[in-house]
């Protein structure tokens, strides 16, 4: 692992997308693929801000769409780094739908993505150590670690039932 450090706060990223007809299905709701695309971009930016390197997607964990994003609503993606390996960065991405007329906001999905940092030659390269210097950052990190573990356990349970 690198001797450098970076904080969870330095990785925080928020991006928004206005849901327009090209990204909707025939019911006027966001296409799942469009939402996954936005999540991937937001997560990659968080990973790059953290590592100061180009990062590529290695994996995306299980995704459940729990609420639709309707035509004309704003999709709000929020991401931050919550764990690191030697060359990999784990990022939590939350998505909310926001009604721009009422400011009402609801959660639509979240997932955990892993990115790998690359050097200028396209080879894997070490990432900084993660620091959480404030209680708020440590709480976010711990929340993400626990939520990922719970999600993985749930997926395994569903596979066992099948």
Automatic annotation (TrEMBL):
GO terms for cellular component: cytosol. Coiled coil: none annotated. Residues 9-121 form the HotDog ACOT-type domain. Keywords: Hydrolase. Transmembrane segments: none annotated. One of its GO terms (molecular function) is long-chain fatty acyl-CoA hydrolase activity. SUPFAM superfamilies: Thioesterase/thiol ester dehydrase-isomerase. InterPro entries: Cytosol_ACT, HOTDOG_ACOT, HotDog_dom_sf, Thioestr_dom. GO terms for biological process: acyl-CoA metabolic process; fatty acid catabolic process. It holds the Pfam family 4HBT. Gene3D superfamilies: Hotdog Thioesterase. This is Acyl-CoA thioester hydrolase. It comes from Haloferax mediterranei (strain ATCC 33500 / DSM 1411 / JCM 8866 / NBRC 14739 / NCIMB 2177 / R-4).
